[in-house]
Design goal:
The complex is a heterodimer. Chain A is an alpha/beta fold. Chain A is globular, with a radius of gyration of 19 Å. Chain B is an alpha/beta fold. Chain B is about 40% helix and about 20% strand. In chain B, the strands form three sheets. In chain B, strands 3-2-4-5-7-6-13 form a seven-stranded mixed beta sheet, with helices on both faces. In chain B, helix 9 links the parallel strand 11 and strand 12. Classes of the chains: A alpha/beta, B alpha/beta. Strand 2 of chain A pairs parallel with strand 9 of chain B. The structure holds thiamine diphosphate and iron/sulfur cluster (SF4).
Amino acid sequence: MNTIPIYAPLLLDKKEYLTSGHRACQGCAEALAVRLVMKALGRDTIVAMATGCMEIISSSLPTTAWQVPWIHVAFENAPAVITGCESGMKAMMRKKKIREKKINFVSMGGDGATADIGMGQLSGAMERGHNCIYICYDNEAYMNTGIQRSSSTPYGATTTTTPAGHDTIGQMTNKKNMPKIAVAHEIPYVATACPSYPFDLIRKLKKASEINGPAYIHIMSVCPTGWRIDPDEAIKYGRLIVESCVFPLYEVENGEYYINYIPEKIPVKEYLKGQGRFRHLKESDIGRIQERVDKEYSSLLKIAKTGDSSECK
Amino acid sequence: MDKRTIGVEVSIAIAEAVAQADVDLIAAYPITPQTHIVEHLSELVAEGRLDAEFVPVESEHSAMSVCCGSSAVGARTFTSTSSQGLALMAEIFFIAPSMRLPIVMALANRSLSAPLSIWNDHSDVMMVRDAGWIHIFTENGQDSYDNIFCSFRIAEDPAVMLPVAVNVDGFILTHMIEPIKYVSDKLVKKYLPEFQMKDALHPDSPLSMGCFAMPEIYTETQKAREEAVLGSYDVVVRAWKEWGELTGRNYSPVETYRTNDADICYVTMGSLSENAMMAVDALRNKGEKVGLIKIRLWRPFPFNDFFSAVNGKAGLIVIDRAMSFGGPGGPLALELRSALYGKQSAPQIVNFIAGFAGRDVTRDDFMSIMIEAKTRFAKDDTSGYVFYGVRE
Ligand SMILES: Cc1ncc(C[n+]2csc(CCOP(=O)(O)OP(=O)(O)O)c2C)c(N)n1
Ligand code: SF4
């Protein structure tokens, strides 16, 4: 089985559905994540996207980077928009107004769109049980409006609305656990992924597209601009966040947790250092972060079985 | 034509029309006084009388968002709201027409908070006046029922492709039981062909909708939006004409009542018109030369129809059921004054703000308004507005 990753690239769709020429910053792992997601889902997909970096960079009139039907309506409502697409098409197919076809209905948003302003609409879409996939591209802040904090910004990170200063260390609260909130909706499939582990990400998206009912995928998407790292370091930091167990790769099928990759668990410090947004942290702050990571990771290990890890190497 | 006349609550009749129009999707969130419309639709779907997706969303913001998605894939789409619900969906209400999505909405007009009031006025629709929807006002149950069909026909016309709001006065109309002449499904099929959207979202012909615009292109998109709204006028008139031919019930952008030789005319929108007609009759019996002008099409505004209706009149008494606070008065009077500005021998306008939040404007009120208006005309005191019937 260990040889599968070597063959996996050969099996990938050669077509690009998010094409080059878009306006993402150099080295943006969020754009890479979108591209991989679209490779996994293929052409029979309709995408509804929230306002944010990925919408702005990919749809500047009169151009578009999208090779699949794509719609943007507003910041907080991509999950509602896609449920409209799904339900409208379902009715038309049932009434034979259009031909039957299996289509992936996918909505996407950043962590702000997902965990903050759009959470009610995401919750509604999951609760109503539409056959749709939701993807959160988590770059841990509102990047499109200039690096403001979101509820997905980690403790200690400096942003333009939680600046580190004499009296604060930046973001004062812990990151909201969105995958857990999705799991609480008792939907059939929830997973975390990261484009630094592309084949794992693709496998999870393919799985989500085969599942009947709502699926939620939380993708850690490194943003060199907001994290204050060099453009060629996004893949490296995607690996470090997983290796340090800050962002574990797992999937939750009908409530059962499966961990996909058990890393060697490097110290969190290895991941934090070098990122401008954590530059101001003192040893004691890092100690506090390490403690929390240890606690969260061990509680995940307690409830998780070992799942398919062949594609995380 | 089916001659069935049934005594029915207007909300139920509206829902029956939506079902007869064979909608594919209804997005629903309850708010008084539109609730009965979506409740009845949910029953029709539950009983299998209507084959449609009924999406009970978690807010009006989502209702309009679901409508956008559904309409973008080419499904015939309906929703309904009022007041605070409209305020909550306002963000998406503006986006739907700019994306040329032919959604139809029954807007059960209701006052806005605060104080909380569930009764009727036009504050809600005036808040979104400039969004780019086509706005029709109805006067009674029959025309509320009829205009659902006309609205789908207008919205989905390839030359229009804009959302349409059917403004129905909350309670005063929505909760009335009126005799309604239902049309047959056969007539509906003839009048309202199956909707085939040219540029729908589909994997076989990908396209991007709702893109981002740089300054060098945004202005052009807004000009196109304006042209679409203005251009819908001819289609609206044609849709009403054909409806009239099929049913004998005729609607036009500006309708008049006993105006031929009138010197002074009331100008109203919505259900006020029926009481105004009674006042006109009473005054005519006393020998006064008065009439009534009803604005049925609010957007696109029918300037030419309005000009012909007011031609030769000395004065207009414009009744507004909404207010532009700190501004020049009610939105209707404000627009009519501006339309007539600089026109030779234009009638004078006095503006009355009346009927806020369900307060009755009876025939007698219209008659006292006439007395007060006449003194103002006589004194040449026609600027500003009168907050009618305020207890002080
Ligand atoms: C209702 C509303 N409020 C605020 C904004 C401004 N806005 C646009 S994108 C954005 C932040 C996006 O952040 P996120 O969802 O994390 O995506 P990212 O840009 O980081 O990929 C904000 C605040 C908006 N478009 N709409
Ligand atoms: S700001 Fe960050 S997420 Fe946005 S395009 Fe640039 S690198 Fe990507």
